[in-house]
Design brief:
By secondary structure, this protein is an alpha/beta fold. 52% of the residues lie in helices and 9% in strands. The strands form two sheets. A five-stranded parallel beta sheet has the order 2-3-6-1-7, with helices on one face. A two-stranded antiparallel ribbon has the order 4-5. A hairpin with a 2-residue loop joins strand 4 and strand 5.
Amino acid sequence: MTDTSLQAAAEHVRHAIRSATDGLVGRDQLAELIVLAAVAQEHLLVIGPPGTAKSAVVRRVAQALGGRYFEYLLGRFTEPSELFGPVDLNKLRAGTVETDVSGMLPEADVAFLDEVFLGSTAILNTLLGVLNERRFRRGHTQLHCPLRVCVGAANALPDDESLAAFGDRFLLHAFIEPLPDHQLEAMLSGGWRSDHAPAAGGGALADLDVLCRHLQQVDLGGVQPALANAIRQLRQAGVTLSDRRIVKSQRLLAAAAVLAGRLQTSEADLWPLLYVLPTHEAQQSARDVLRDVFANAAHPHLLSAVEEATLQPLSRAARLVEAARGCLAEEAAPERMRIESVLREIDANFGGEHLPEALVEWRGRLVERLAVAA
């Protein structure tokens, strides 16, 4: 089952993702997961070392979507008022304790909280209400929050059990690493380009809301038996998930379907399950355990997220075909370095004798364009 307005909204959101990641080489996965979380009305925790463009990606996705954006770097001495707003002094004089939330987190559509685990107990407890219920409660202030998605970031998962429980409220967990050697040239070129051409402000927030409204209409019957079997396989391998995370994972599968312009799920939509697993070790184990389950994983718009979840040739080839198509479709002649970057990545992932048929033609066309550009 498809819907014209649904498909149009999915295309517009995909365009926003492309705009946001232009020049941010290797970070398409993170941008796609932000949008997946937003459509599922869940939140994303990003774990990775400093300097891996976490904040840059979130900032540019928020800019491409439009709406109100809130960003803050938490520290040990961060006060609740720095996130939620100060007490309204005029109302305090009248005997009412209310918070002035103007321009603060309770009014944000997209939020990014860096070093999120450094927040105090008072901050984290208030955040739970905002994240789980979209409600802000403080003193006499009781507000509904328009928050579509909150992205939390940290260098590592905490050892403290209470902090780990807070981190568990982020349904998706993504682990980011520095770019590999074969992407260094592309990173340098893209980084220079993105510094001088910031993402244009967009109006995709309305399209995002269209997708969210369709979420409850998705038919999960085509994927629930396969999901149950995948959970059984994980359990047999010693990889466990709480009942709450298992049930909520269905929201991600439904979100993947609507982002593809569909109201029905299939086994091709199972790949978000990987990101529900809370640790890097669990995700690595799951890729091996679920290799056959993920064999047919695919998505027309979230190519990098699928590739990173499955690490299978089919998904990698699909993403590289799109990269080649995008490079050759540019109105202006693409930079020689950008063509070389795509070719280098194709060759780094597939030896000549193992090149998938889908990539043979596109690699040849890139080589021809490179010869013309020489």
